[in-house]
């Protein structure tokens, strides 16, 4: 008995840092959009009450409790009081340290997959609560589509899709960035009098990213990538989350494919993607906007 779940990546259409919270985290406002670049998780019932996690990935990832998939599985099994266990195969395609939410999406897919595998009577509210215990942006992937995120990203409001018909490229340079490092650099910039960028409205959404300058300080090659993308004249483009991945989108797939080819020839890691209406996909239940 097994279940297979696709865990979608996300992009951030802008990210504003509203201030520092008493708990030390940053208060943000952002717009999440899920895309069809995905990891795949296969969850299989085993009788022994344990979690067996195998990771197939081009990037080094821990197979134990340091992995969000393992932590999500632990939470569900403990919450449900199950005496059985699960074997999980995680096949990675979403780059690590890229600002695309791969680890959080994998955790959300694990929660959904286990509910399906064991036919658990977990409400969406209970699943959301478990997701929040794993990470602040894990709950988003239980919803997917276009959502406004507030707080640490966990206060979510679903809004109608604005990207119907668009296709996009996700472009990653050779560097990787940790969210913590980018926020530390952002705080340093503020201490030295730096001002966040002006509002950049697109269809009513502020697509400016307050973390972009900090990311460029840590990964200078982003400045060149930024210029290349601007010259390609996309309908919308920007850095996703804490970077270093950029997104660029066009309403015509032919333009997107031309841009993807040009960027790949310049040595960037490039993914062609489309927006999705959900953050996960049970196999044979794929929905694309």
Give an account of the 3D structure:
By secondary structure, the protein is an alpha+beta fold. It folds into 2 domains: 2-159 and 277-282, 2-Layer Sandwich (Ribosomal Protein S5, domain 2), CATH 3.30.230.10; 167-273, 2-Layer Sandwich (Alpha-Beta Plaits), CATH 3.30.70.890. The chain is 31% helix and 31% strand. The strands form 3 sheets. Strands 1, 2, 3, 4, 5, 6 and 13 form a 7-stranded mixed β-sheet that branches. A 4-stranded antiparallel β-sheet has the order 10-11-7-12, covered by helices on one side. Helix 1 packs parallel to helix 2, helix 1 (68-80) crosses helix 3 (124-134) and helix 5 packs across helix 6 (212-218). The longest helix is centred in the middle third of the chain and has 16 residues, at 102-117. It is globular and about 55 Å long. The relative contact order is 0.19. Mean pLDDT is 94; it is low at 285-289.
Number of strands: 13
Distance between the termini: 31 Å
In the CATH hierarchy, the third-tier topology of the largest domain is known as: Ribosomal Protein S5, domain 2
Largest sheet composition: 7 strands, mixed
Q: How many helical stretches?
A: 8
Structural class: alpha+beta
* Gyration radius from CA atoms, angstroms: 19 Å
CATH architecture of the largest domain: 2-Layer Sandwich
Overall pLDDT metric: 94
Q: Unreliable stretches, pLDDT < 50, 5 or more residues?
A: 285-289
Helix content: 25-40%
Instruction: Give the topology string: H per helix, E per strand.
Output: EEEHEHHHEEEHEEHHEEHEE
Measured by DSSP, the beta-strand proportion falls in 25-35%
């Amino acid at each position: 008995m097994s279940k297979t779940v696709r865990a979608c990546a996300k992009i951030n259409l802008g990210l504003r840092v509203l201030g520092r919270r008493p708990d030390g985290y940053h208060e943000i406002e952002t717009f999440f959009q899920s895309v069809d670049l995905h990891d795949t998780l296969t969850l299989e019932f085993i009788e022994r009450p344990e979690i067996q996690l195998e990771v197939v990935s081009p990037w080094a990832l821990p197979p134990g409790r340091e992995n969000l998939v393992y932590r999500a599985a632990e939470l569900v099994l403990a919450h449900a009081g199950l005496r059985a266990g699960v074997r999980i195969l995680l096949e990675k395609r979403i780059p690590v340290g890229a600002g695309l939410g791969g680890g959080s999406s994998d955790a959300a897919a694990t929660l959904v997959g286990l509910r399906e595998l064991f036919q658990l009577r977990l409400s969406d509210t209970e699943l959301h609560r478990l997701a929040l215990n794993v990470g602040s942006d894990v709950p988003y992937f239980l919803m997917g589509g276009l959502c406004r995120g507030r707080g640490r990203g966990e206060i979510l409001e679903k809004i109608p899709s604005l990207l119907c018909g668009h296709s996009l490229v996700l472009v990653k340079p050779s560097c990787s960035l940790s969210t913590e490092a980018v926020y530390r650099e952002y705080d340093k910039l503020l201490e030295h009098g730096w001002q966040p960028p002006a509002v950049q409205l697109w269809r009513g959404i502020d697509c400016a990213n307050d973390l972009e300058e900090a990311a460029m300080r840590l990964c200078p090659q982003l400045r060149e990538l930024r210029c290349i993308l601007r010259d390609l004249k996309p309908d919308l483009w920007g850095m996703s989350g804490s970077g270093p991945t950029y997104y660029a989108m066009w309403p015509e797939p032919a333009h997107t494919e031309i841009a993807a080819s040009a960027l790949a020839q310049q040595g960037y890691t490039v993914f062609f993607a489309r927006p999705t209406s959900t953050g996960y996909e049970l196999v044979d239940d794929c929905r694309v906007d």
